Automatic annotation (TrEMBL):
Stretches assigned to the Calcineurin-like phosphoesterase domain: 61-294
Protein name: Metallophosphoesterase
UniProt-listed InterPro entries: Calcineurin-like_PHP (IPR004843), Metallo-depent_PP-like (IPR029052), Pantetheine_PDE (IPR052963)
SUPFAM superfamilies: Metallo-dependent phosphatases
Top-level taxon of origin: Bacteria
Matching Pfam families: Metallophos (PF00149)
Signal peptide: none
Amino acid sequence: MSSNSKDNSADPVVNPADPESVAAAADYLLSGRAHAFSAPDAGAAKTPEAGTDVDPGHATVRAIADLHAASRGNRSVVAGLQPSHPGDWLIVAGDVAERLADIADVLATLAERFARVIWVPGNHELWGGRIGLDGLAAPTRYAVMVEICRQLGIDTPEDPYPLWEGAGGPVRIVPLFLLYDYSWRPDPHASMSEALAAARERRVVATDEYLIDPAPFPSVSAWCSERLAEATRTLSRLDPSVPTVLINHWPLHREPTRMLFLQDFAMWCGTEHTSQWPLRYNAQTCVYGHLHIPRSHIVDGVRFEEVSLGYPREWQRRGFPEPLARQIVPVPQAPPVRWLDDGEGPHIAGPGETGHPFREDITADQWAEVAGK
């Protein structure tokens, strides 16, 4: 779906070494906003509710990921995202859309609604198109998106980490951009080249391999290494007594990828280098997306929330959490997402729905422990 009527041939030229040209591209994209996500489609099918079903009476930090706003059926979801309280913050954990014009439009729409928006990129934001601004290499695309966010007052991984001091605070909100390095291999004894070759033989190859141009980095894994080093330096300066919310589009621990039907795909889902970060950096919650498996679970005593919407064909089949914009701070008294299996396949439980649990991820005692931290 195209939401920008401008001729791509007229797009400004961006020189990644010239901050003024990056800023000009961001300004160009924002000035051409189509406001395509400001109102629901007429006659659209039922879409997820974004606010809370019970108003907590105070501001909260909420999160969502994988809006895939250009997908038919998801525009109404974006249009329906509203805060439950005027002071609500919203975390957007990647995969907003593929076209820069759509990304700018969605982020501008959300920035108008929520008191504060925190964004991290996903792999889809890095996909390169063929013409104009969408043909930029991924690091340059990222620079343009960061500048878009700065013009909108949105926090990114390049900005100081904001401190939430409302209910459940103080909590440091930490947006990260870390990518993947193929270290989550099905066979731990295989080299990276062997694991990728085996995946190709099984016809499991992420679209990233064709659409992410990491130049000037020689590879995505090299870019990932640079991002890890930079984030480590910044995180080491945090006050260790203040709990954090760690946000990354790709999960910080491999455990969530065990749910994948195709285990080869885990290679494009994160890096082993972050497995201890939730404990090392005092994480109250880790927020991620990418897997399109909305889930509340605990790893090493830390709460993990997969907050993706996904594609309509997915959420129409499995359902969606209600509310869709997941409460992150304060930690809810019960897991926000539960899966049930009625014998016809697993689905996400609606509010108050009971049945046979599809997977017992959390005991009541475990959740009480993380909620009481």
